[in-house]
Predict the 3D structure of the following.
Amino acid sequence: MKTRIYYLFLPFLAFMFSCDDFDRDEQLEYLGENVNMSTPLTVSQTEQYVLLEDFTGWNCPNCPKGTEEINSIISQYGDRIVVAAVHAGAFARPKPDNNNLDLRTDYGEKLLKKYGILSFPSLMVMRNGETSSTPSAWKGKVEEFLNSSEHDANISLGVDVFNDTLLVSTQVELLNDADGDLFLTLYVVEDGIVGIQNDNGTIKNDYVFNHVLRNGVKEDMPLSYEPLQKGDKVSKNYIMKTDAGWIIDNCKLVAILTKSNGNVMQVNQIEING
């Protein structure tokens, strides 16, 4: 078993070493001053988790039904369900009718186009290339992944907040040989955002939006530049900028491990406490 550790170093080290002195695998990422190199891993897993990306919008009259179905799935399967509500497309465009609350993100719009989302709500499970706009079918899609007898990786996470910066520590453990390159994507979701929602033609002024995808996504970062085998552990640290509009104690950091074809291998999340 090989363990690979990737550290974040303080900026002054940049003056001591050139990146040319390191293998590509070991090149440094730099932190701001007075930030620890890593933070303890406090969340881990031993079973397959499932990523649900819910394409939604405040002016989508059928989307609250989708949210109800997702809440039902969470109530049944708990922490094994990781959700991002992706506000994107025409139904998410801010207007005076919703006090111009804009929950869209650049990354959400990119996902909308990449996966050809045309109907709302639409649920994408584990980015397997299929989407469904029929909430009653969603639980069956989720259970296909939850009932798999074997999973290929576990993700452990730690996160600390320093002013407007998150320090994120990750460790990926391979339970089987990796078939091709692997990538990490990190993003933040926020609960408890109150706004206006069209609910089957009725306008609700105090609707609570949860799992809302936020800006500042770190996308498709290579996990390793060499093949990974069963038993390998890869540790990496990342920095992410927060936004003044977030209520950080209502936020979670989501880590997604994807294969080279874009399908999700594993996902995990951790609460961010400011």
Remarks:
- The longest strand covers residues 153-162.
- The chain has one domain: 3-13+29-271.
- The longest helix spans residues 63-77.
- The CA atoms of residues 35 and 162 lie 7 Å apart.
